[in-house]
Design goal:
- This protein is an all-beta fold.
- The protein has two domains: 168 residues, Sandwich (Jelly Rolls), CATH 2.60.120; 131 residues, Jelly Rolls (Sandwich).
- It is 2% helix and 39% strand.
């Protein structure tokens, strides 16, 4: 989480009261040793009326993905609120990656029991409502919702999200951050562009809480509305950052994905390919080199612009380039790129450090000719 935030009316000291007694809830990571926030409620946050447990039906295939793949997410239609419109595409023990075309708002708030959510808004805008307040989101925002925060998406029309759910925390790369936790001057991201919730809520009712625990949903009816905060402070909170608010680094010759990094985590990293001028050496080859990235699975989500190195890729496509095969520009694209001065592409890349498997059902979305796309015609 980025920086210390204080919102609303708080007692002068932790776990004390001034005039009124509020119910203090500490939301804390890394066993009370990591980033935390303290929320002040009007009502006890643990009271509930009844609960039930339901199965969550999301299973992975047996085998790891071993060939380059192209997923046509455009075939997935919008079908509900965030929780139930999620379509997991692939993952492993540490993370799940998918898309969600949210076109409804549930009458509940959701909480991840064991996952942090990083969502990229491919299309659409709306309101992210959480128990810590609300923020407006826009096309091309990254939205980070840490484990344990209650939330829901309230889209205007339809919102198309590409997301990763991660058991491990998702942070800005350590090399971007100074000793006091501030993003450095040379970082592509500035603290100034991070948008945090304001203490305001929608008029929509909250009838229940749904906790996604990975294998099952625990649903309960709270005895009072959880949106009863008078304030909170700390460094653990949801936030948004627009991808286009990053200032990309450019080089004299082609630079590899780590220079485009936005987020870091234990089992993956996230980079953003932004509109930018190409390399400025007089004999630079602007397109990427052919590469064998032998320790990672490379995931690319194509959001907008012209994706120069790939044929047959559309907005919303996802490619997976696996570690066990070399990949690079499609035939003809390498020489074709020489002399190009600018790219308008916007794409999100994940380098995933452990092997991945498709979720059941993803095979129906695959472009069956993708491996053949490197064959000379
Ligand atoms: Fe690559």
């Amino acid at each position: 989480m980025p920086f210390y935030v204080k919102i609303g009316n708080l007692p002068k000291y932790r776990h004390t009261f001034d005039k009124d007694v509020y119910f203090e809830e500490v939301i804390s990571s890394e066993s009370f040793d990591g980033p935390y926030s303290i929320l002040y409620h009007n009502k006890e946050p643990t009271n509930f009326l009844e609960y039930e447990i339901r199965n969550k039906d999301a299973k992975m295939e047996e085998k790891y993905i071993s060939q380059h793949s192209h997923i046509l997410t455009q075939k997935i239609k919008g079908n509900g609120d965030f929780a139930y419109s999620r379509k997991y595409l692939f993952g492993n023990d540490y993370l799940s990656i998918g898309i969600s075309r949210v076109n409804k708002t549930g009458d509940y708030l959701m909480r991840f029991g064991n996952r942090h959510l990083l969502a990229f808004v491919h299309q659409g805008d709306g309101l992210l409502e959480t128990n810590m307040g609300s923020l407006n989101y826009f096309e091309h925002d990254y939205i980070l919702i840490p484990k344990g925060v209650l939330f829901r998406f309230i889209p205007k029309g339809e919102t198309f999200l590409f997301f990763v759910e991660s058991g491990d925390s998702i942070n800005f790369p350590q090399r971007y951050v100074n000793g006091l936790g501030q993003l450095k001057l040379q970082s592509p991201i500035s603290d100034r562009n991070i948008r945090i919730p304001e203490l305001r809520y929608s008029d929509l009712p909250v009838k229940k809480i749904i906790v996604d625990s990975g294998n099952e949903y625990l649903e309960y009816i709270p005895s009072s509305d959880p949106r009863d905060l008078v304030g909170w402070d700390g460094t653990y909170y949801p936030f948004a950052l627009n991808a286009l608010d990053q200032m990309p680094w450019v080089g004299k010759i082609h630079l590899p994905p780590p220079v485009h990094q936005t987020f870091d985590s234990k089992h993956f990293m996230v980079a953003t390919f932004l509109p930018r001028p190409f390399d400025f050496h007089e004999r630079a080859i602007p397109i990427s080199f052919y590469h064998s990235n032998v320790d990672v699975e490379e995931i690319l989500f194509y959001s907008s612009g012209n994706f120069m190195s790939r044929k047959g890729i559309k907005k919303g496509s996802i490619t997976i380039h696996v570690r066990n095969l070399t990949h690079g520009p499609h035939p003809g694209k390498y020489k074709e790129s020489i002399g190009k001065e600018w790219t308008d592409e916007l794409a999100v890349m994940l380098e995933v450090y452990d092997r991945i498997k498709f979720y059941k059902g993803t095979d129906e979305l695959l472009d069956k000719n993708y491996m053949s796309s490197w064959r000379e015609e």
